Amino acid sequence: MKLFQNFVVGILFAGSLALVGYFTVLSDSGPFARQGQQLVLYFDHAEGVKAGTRVTVLGVPAGTVIDIELVSIDDRGQPVPDDSELRSRQIVGITVELKKPVVFYSNYRISLKNESILSGKVVAIDPGTARVTTGLAPERLQVVWVDPREAAQSGKSASQYSLEKLMADRESAKTMTALQGQNAGDPVAGLAEMISENRDDVRRTIQNVAEITDKINNGRGTIGLLINDNQLHENATTLVTDARLVVREMRESLEDTREQAPVTSFLRAALTAF
After folding, report:
1. Per 3-state DSSP, what percentage of the chain is helix, strand, and coil (rounded to 5)?
2. What is the average pLDDT across 193-211?
3. Model's pTM, two decimal places?
4. Are 104 and 128 in contact (CB under 8 A)?
């Protein structure tokens, strides 16, 4: 019997180790997890994004940021090699790895935003829809998906690999699209800017609040007297006590009237009969 119990305990222990090993090694977050497809998104600036930043598709967690690089673009906003004569300025190429491929349409929206004031950045992707809302029907876009293994074998980053694909596509007159994102803005920076623009009004408001609290502490004004004058406090207590007595007496009078109502009704009926 004891041998059987030890055998059962051993099976349970081995099963527990197997479950822990699966969720820590072979699951989506483990080191041997199957890699998803990578995609390069282009923004004016990174704005607090770093490797490991969450990526959502329609609000659903769908991947993470893998790498961030500076990318050269031409006057039309298209990525070009750094040594290209068409180079106009630099933007940021953010490489994201998504668990599942996403179909993009011409009415897509990609933005960097804060989910809340205290939370970090998130790359929010809305791939768009084929449904016609206004005007022409949205067009399905061809984007450059990067296989991490192919990029690693070529010795290039996902951004470089994607740029080569885009350049080759332009030479063949195809329609590959470089996905452009928008910077939604930092709410904390916006609040600081608003305060800076209204500095005089904010200073005046703070001074007024300080004056009001100073008057209250010194017993000036109605509120200050109510808070600091013991006599007013005692008067208010007396008033509340008297009000309670009046309410109690009114309640007792109503109860006496209710008790006397049958007698009064009987006498009225008797006098009416005679």
Report:
1. 45, 20, 30
2. 77
3. 0.57
4. yes
Calculate the dihedral angle through the C-alpha atoms of 209, 211, 212, 218, rounding to the nearest 10 degrees: 140
Segment 141-149 mean pLDDT: 84
Tell me the pLDDT tens digit for each residue of 5-26. Answer: 665 556 766 766 666 565 554 4
At which residue do the structure tokens 């009004």 appear? 201
Pairing of strands 142-143, 79-80: unpaired
Q: For residue 207, what are the CA distances in angstroms to 137, 214, 222? A: 58, 10, 20
* pLDDT surpasses 50 at 240: yes
Q: How far apart are CA 66 and CA 232, in angstroms?
A: 68
DSSP 180: B
**Type of residue numbered 113:** K
Strand residue runs (E) in the chain: 37-43, 54-57, 60-73, 79-80, 89-98, 109-114, 121-126, 142-143, 176-177, 182-183
The mean predicted confidence, pLDDT, of the chain is 76
Whole-number Å distance between alpha carbons of 27 and 150: 23
d(CA 169, CA 171): 5
